[in-house]
Amino acid sequence: MAQVPKVRLSEGLEICRILNGMWQVSGAHGPIDTPKAVNAMDAYINAGLTTFDMADIYGPAEDIFGAFSSQVVEKAIQQSLKRMRVKSLDCLQFHWWDYSDKRYLEALGHLSDLQQEGVIRELALTNFDTKRLEEITGKGIRISSNQVQYSLIDRRPMVKMAQFCDSQGIQLLAYGTLGGGLISEKYLGAAEPRGQGELKTASLSKYKNMINMWGGWGLFQELLGSLDSVARSQHCTIVNVAIKYILDMPAVGGVIVGSRLGVPGAEHIQENLKSFEVNLSANDISKIESVLSRSKDLIAVIGDCGDEYRN
């Protein structure tokens, strides 16, 4: 197993700095062959990428992980298990849609009690803004991490979220770092994709909308051009540069990269691991940020982290 850099959350849980995102097996990105998906997880584990991000709304994601865990146990102790049962959750990430309904504080209080009982190791959030994060921690609730959209296109977390998290020992887990695959060589010099015929996955549609709000396809092409220039000088890929740029940001514990388990040609494990070898120079960063400085202020357009889900 490869030695992948890890970060320790506040209650002691170690997670990889590149996480395997399992939204991609929800069905919104095309059909998933569950047995193939289970078998495909071996490649991630063997590569040292042992942290999986999943949710009960991600279709069969939890069942796939449960089946894979059972296989591991079977090999280790030579017993048959229908499904692995765990005594505690390593990390529970809590999301709440409507801030006007203040019961999220009650719910988090109850989850905090379960944490004290040992049912939950790490209590975390998903898509909470800075104001609510300050409110929650002000109630004495210990939060380990906040999962937010964070990429070269969406740098809202660096405005105020990162500073607060840094002061509280809260890790940011960044998703959308590759814009659903748009931030890659594949789209360098490409015509602007439009409609479902060209934006075939939920991720592509979502992050193309983000690019539209950020500054449009023309400016995005300039960004890809600057990333390509940096990547060539670093002997790596645009993907590596995009991942490392976010990994180097304050308070970022890790980035979540989507995993198309069992889909031929859709896995990029070794390429993603090369991101840890990239060292961006001041000149590299200046070249990238000269383009970013001409984009729109997404805080003004959308609001703070997670507001896109509530407006």
UniProtKB/TrEMBL annotation:
It comes from the Eukaryota. CDD domains: AKR_unchar. Signal peptide: none annotated. Residues 17-68, 69-291 form the NADP-dependent oxidoreductase domain. This is NADP-dependent oxidoreductase domain-containing protein. It comes from Acipenser ruthenus (Sterlet sturgeon). The lineage of its organism: Eukaryota, Metazoa, Chordata, Craniata, Vertebrata.
